[in-house]
């Protein structure tokens, strides 16, 4: 059965390449003026999921930049939790006294989005979007403190895109466990479930949240939202579904190879398992990247080239990693090594020589 691999979109890759440098944000005309004020609030010292709060905020803004979102949406991504919210107690700007300060810094429209995003129920928002709660014009009604609040179609579109970027940047198996079945969270006492609470845990990729991101993306096809914002280039421009079962199977198969649960002497079983993972979920790069290395090790240069190109396309589409064990830029760097090696027909025959591979620029 043919693998569902993707051709490499050079235009998208060039956009992604510009964001590989850690300093990209300091040169961004929209985000750079805001960054010193945000950094002054010690976001680089706060813990946040798979890194620091700075890593998270910049990572969300990176995906939104890659997805060519307008200025106010990108600023929402950079500042999306600074007033705190129901998930994060990191209040970097006091919403009772500092809204004018932030409004002066980013402008009234962007600050309005940040305030709404922080103060409305994110859980309720996701539940209602995924549950078909959008009105015919794309607006969405939320309830808070006994009051009904209606988000405009523009606000809904912005919140969907930022939620997609927010989720892919931070979610891995530790959150799968502590936020079981989000947005329908099942609260459990930590003392009883201490093993699930040990951070960062085994750092498996999420087995459930890509399905949710795909569902949010498909909501952008709603007639009231279509065309309001550039569509993220994931899940075939947010047109494809990923089932719960397919995502869970793909993650399990991928992780079994990473954990070396397959026979270690021959490549055939691990290769077949990874191929099946890609068939279940062709929308993330890591399984395709590992498959490319297995193909190279087996002398299957053409197969390795196609798999590496497809992996690079996936990484370029997301701007964040699915497997959080290493950062996005490191996955891209190794994938480029694999693609270069497959294209040139070269791959080290000795293990120690893997330490010497380098990108030829």
UniProtKB/TrEMBL annotation:
<protein>
    <recommendedName>
        <fullName>DUF6817 domain-containing protein</fullName>
    </recommendedName>
</protein>
<feature type="domain" description="DUF6817">
    <location>
        <begin position="40"/>
        <end position="122"/>
    </location>
</feature>
<dbReference type="Pfam" id="PF20680">
    <property type="entry name" value="DUF6817"/>
</dbReference>
<dbReference type="InterPro" id="IPR049202">
    <property type="entry name" value="DUF6817"/>
</dbReference>
<dbReference type="InterPro" id="IPR011990">
    <property type="entry name" value="TPR-like_helical_dom_sf"/>
</dbReference>
């Amino acid at each position: 059965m043919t693998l569902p691999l993707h051709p490499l979109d050079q235009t998208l890759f060039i956009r992604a390449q510009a964001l590989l440098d850690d300093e990209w944000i300091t040169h961004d005309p929209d985000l750079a003026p805001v960054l010193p004020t945000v950094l002054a609030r010690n976001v680089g010292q706060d813990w946040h999921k798979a890194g620091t709060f700075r890593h998270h905020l910049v990572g969300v803004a990176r995906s939104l930049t890659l997805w060519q979102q307008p200025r106010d949406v990108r600023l929402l991504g950079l500042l999306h939790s600074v007033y705190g919210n129901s998930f994060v107690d990191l209040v970097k700007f006091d919403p009772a006294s500092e809204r004018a300060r932030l409004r002066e810094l980013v402008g009234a429209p962007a600050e309005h989005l940040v305030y709404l995003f922080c103060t409305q129920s994110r859980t309720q928002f996701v539940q209602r979007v995924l549950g078909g709660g959008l009105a015919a014009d794309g607006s969405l009604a939320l309830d808070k403190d006994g009051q009904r609040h209606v988000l405009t179609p523009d606000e809904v579109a912005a919140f969907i895109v930022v939620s997609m970027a927010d989720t892919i940047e931070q979610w891995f198996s530790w959150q799968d466990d502590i936020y079981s079945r989000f947005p329908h969270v099942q609260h459990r006492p930590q003392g009883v479930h201490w093993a699930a609470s040990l951070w960062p845990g085994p750092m498996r990729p999420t087995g459930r949240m890509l399905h949710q991101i795909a569902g949010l993306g498909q909501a952008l096809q709603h007639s009231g939202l279509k065309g309001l914002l550039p569509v993220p280039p994931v899940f075939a421009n947010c047109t494809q579904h990923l089932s719960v079962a397919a995502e869970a199977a793909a993650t399990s198969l991928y992780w079994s190879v990473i954990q070396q649960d397959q026979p270690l002497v021959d490549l055939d079983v691990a290769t077949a398992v990874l191929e099946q993972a890609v068939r279940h979920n062709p929308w993330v790069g890591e399984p395709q990247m590992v498959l490319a290395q297995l193909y190279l090790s087996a002398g299957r240069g053409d197969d390795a080239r196609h798999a590496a190109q497809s992996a690079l396309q996936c990484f370029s589409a997301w701007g964040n990693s699915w497997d959080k064990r290493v950062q996005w830029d490191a996955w891209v760097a190794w994938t480029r090594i694999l693609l270069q090696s497959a294209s040139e027909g070269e791959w080290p025959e000795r293990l120690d020589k893997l330490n010497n591979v380098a990108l030829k620029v």
